[in-house]
Specification:
The complex is a heterodimer of chains A (470) and B (333). Chain A has 470 residues and is mainly α. Chain A is built from 13 helices and 8 strands. Chain B has 333 residues and is mostly helical. Chain B is globular. In chain B, helix 7 runs antiparallel to helix 8 and helix 8 packs parallel to helix 12. Classes of the chains: A mainly alpha (470), B mainly alpha (333).
Chain lengths: 470, 333
Amino acid sequence: MFGLEAVELARIQFAFTIAFHIMFPAFTIGLASYLAVLEGLWLLTGRAPFRNLARYWSKIFALTFGMGVVSGVVMSYQFGTNWSRLSDIAGPVLGPLLSYEVLTAFFLEAGFLGIMLFGWNRVGKRLHFFATCMVAVGTLISAFWILSANSWMHTPQGHAMVDGRFVPVDWFEIVFNPSFPYRLAHMVLAAYLTTAFIVGAVGAWHLLRDRRDEPARIMFSMAMWMAALVAPIQIVAGDLHGLNTLKYQPAKVAAMEGHWETQKGAPLILFGWPDMKREETRWAIEIPKLGSLILTHEWDGEIKGLKSWAKEDRPNPAIVFWSFRIMVASGLFMMLVGALSLWLRWRKRLYDGRLFHRLCVLSGPIGLVAILAGWITTEVGRQPWVVYGLLRTRDAVSPIPAATVGTSLILFVVVYAFVFGAGIYYLLKLMRAAVPVVAHAPESSARMRPMAAAPPADNMPAAPSPEKRP
Amino acid sequence: MSFDLPLVWAAIIAFGIIMYVVLDGFDLGIGILFPLVRGPEDRDAMMNSVAPVWDGNETWMVLGGAALFGAFPLAYALLLSALYMPLIVMLLALIFRGVAFEFRFKAKRSRFLWDWSFAFGSILTAFAQGISLGAFIQGIAVTNRQYAGGPFDWLTPFSLCIGLGLVAGYATLGCGWLILKTEGELQRRCFKLMLPLAAILLLFIALASLWTPLLNARISARWFSMPNLLYLAPVPILVAVAAFLLWRSIVNRRDAQPFLLALALFLLGYAGLAISLWPFIVPPSVTIWDAAAPSASQSFMLVGMLILIPVILAYTVYSYWVFRGKVRGGYHE
């Protein structure tokens, strides 16, 4: 179908569904923690803006989380539907890890989500806060298990091969495989940064309308602190991840950097076009020696080039080289924004810098861009392997005709475009509305009105009125 | 540890499946009933009765899949690739059903779109699950640990019949749940619907019970030989008893009994299935021992399950208890 084979269609379908899926937890992991922080601050200080912010972001969380759940269910079944050979061969290792994800994370999130979203009036303040914390913890535990499983596919260990199938030998080694700590840290930090920039964008948006909007100031400030502190840490985490990848997946690094020849003291190729046919990176703009310095932390470190591997063992450098660059550029940009926010804060102009606010609004999705680019880098960079060095992707696919996979692919694209398109539209609608300024609320269900009660941001200024204290 | 791990795991997976069927059964049932209830407040009440718990309910299906993946990877691989089309349809339908919970309350002019999404998603999910069940009962062609059939083997009159039966079954569960959780006019409406729905369900149970042995000599022998017939007779007898009690509970306007008795019917039907199919996890040729993962996988998972399932059940029960009582007005936010 479309001149593509079943395995290529299956890969495209997996890539498409997981790219959509990852955007939701990328936001909700950080957002769940942010909700716990907001609610905790409210309990500690009693200040109404914290509670109002918690309610505001809670609605956005509910919508995003729901989309994450339904797109996630697709992933858990797609291993079996489209990658049945992978499931048979590696199921004994991957299956238990995913089961633990369901048992320790999904149930925890789902179990307490109802109370968190709907139980404001039904349980005490402390119990509700506990529920919020459990949801936040659930999202992090979920990241733990799924990244452990995915990392094992990149740096497998702790197993034996019996009759061509993986058999677990040491679960500690399987779970804590060599790349896992780095990938876990890198992804969790990425999730927090993604949330910081989305919250920052929403805060900036409302500040542009009214710079005295107190909840907007609070959330903008919090977001900018996150950006300023976490972006540099993420760069370091990324660097350490790179060192680990060089050790265990050198072909991926060669593709990421566009190096074809093995060399010591390799240059940093900033831009260029890696050409698989000609086995060279064309129109390369290089900085001498910097490549080895960054990748090995030594001026004369050796970097293997793609030509060290047989052609069928090389990942596609054109894709991986550019996705990597996009990710790094996004990361550096985030660090820059964080630094700018610190400078503005020092000059006491954080809430007045309109140009900066506009920049922040436009930068809202930057975390998502970085995450997608990063995942493309790591997963396309793992090819042609599905379990690195041990099982090829083309040997892992289900014995289903191309037309069948092509049909399901089309269905996914159409449904996702419609459903998640609508979801994003509703999300943006929620974000456009200002945080309602509600005085210390009577414990009534009047607060529980859906979005219809929030003043439309266009015709009512979000000017805070003095809060009535009881 | 010399007990039969695959046997223990078969029991756990069976438990997981029935938990899913029962919990998401009534969630989906509510969606299936949507077209029959028009009033917007009634529809709000219907959704609110499950809004805080539907996600946890659906998670049992994710557990079923993941546990199958880890404990019986060959079965996971064979079943999911053999039932490709109905499962893809189910996954897409679940998306429509799931997002409706959130989108419906955000939409004003386009609320009808998400009503339709909720109903359509629920009906199609139930139908696809039923078809998958029917195809499963009929058997899966396997050669060399891979699915050896065509892309449409699952599509037969039998599987379509089971599909319709499951739609009726979930609708009955959903109706019972609403009797429990609503009051006034909506509850009266549900009492009126419950009887015909239960009747349709019983019809399908009877149909499936008679048709399944016809498909498969082994199943027929299991049920109709002596002394099996004596040992297994309680199952259809209990179905008849439950059906009678269900009718009485509807006539007498009991709050909780209709739901519980509909549940009992489901459990009995499930037991019947298990009896028919034992010990094949991929009928007709792959047993639970054939498909089992190495003991290192099954024992690692078992530890977690034994510790965590009670914990999960505890906070699930707690969550239901927090939202106990009749649905009054909307509390969606």
